Fold this protein.
Amino acid sequence: MSGDESLLRAESPQRKVIVAIDGPSGAGKSTIARHLARHFGLLNLETGAMYRAFALKALHAGLSLDDSAALADLAAETTIRLEPAERENRVLLDDEDVTGLLRNQTVTDAASRVSVFPAIRAWMVRLQQQLGEAGGVVMEGRDIGTVVFPQAQVKIFLDAAPEVRGLRRYDQIGQTGPTPATPPEEVIRDLRARDERDRNRADSPLKPAPDAVLLDSTNMTLEEAVRAAEAIVASRLRWPVPQQ
Ligand code: DC
């Protein structure tokens, strides 16, 4: 943590604040969490990137993604660190920067598969609690408001219709991914399959915490959803919304 960050955590009123952002893929969590962190002077921590980093290691090790015992053994000899950075978190897997290797479809699917296992989740939850315990964070994921920080002062559950989320994802892939682009129907199909797994796993399924504010961005632009999220955080914390 840099000197500025520790000062922010130690001395500002944001000190103990935890803002939990949960929701399915493509609901706009990353963009909204990044904006909120910048806007309110908090650190942004993307927990999905940790599951992705572990999935990358499991793929490289050639493990079966169904072998929970082998995955738990691998976890026992793995370190994952997140470092807040300007756009997205820097992800260090066993001290190696893997940030650029985590967003392809193979890792995306593998992350969803390894994240169903209780031993993997328990390990990740501990790591995430350590990362956020000092407060001053926006933490984004699937189970932040329900399991990782049930005491978070602000919880937002972001959602949108699957077709809308799929098309947003398609637009993102179109900008950064390899050609030829995956057809939109395929992106929506993959997203529905991951939704299904994330919402129906036995351990910590994706669902809103009882005290979460639901924000459905189906009929909003991302800009409108960002403003709505800012207003929720400001009113929950009784802070004025900082001027642009
Ligand atoms: O947010 P993301 O798409 O980067 O997450 C990748 C996968 O990790 C997602 O399919 C579900 C899993 N995940 C989870 O189970 N719990 C979290 N807190 C974050 C992500």
User: Anything to note?
Assistant: The chain has one domain: 3-233. The first helix runs from residue 3 to 11. The longest strand covers residues 154-159. The domain at 3-233 is CATH 3.40.50.300 (Rossmann fold).
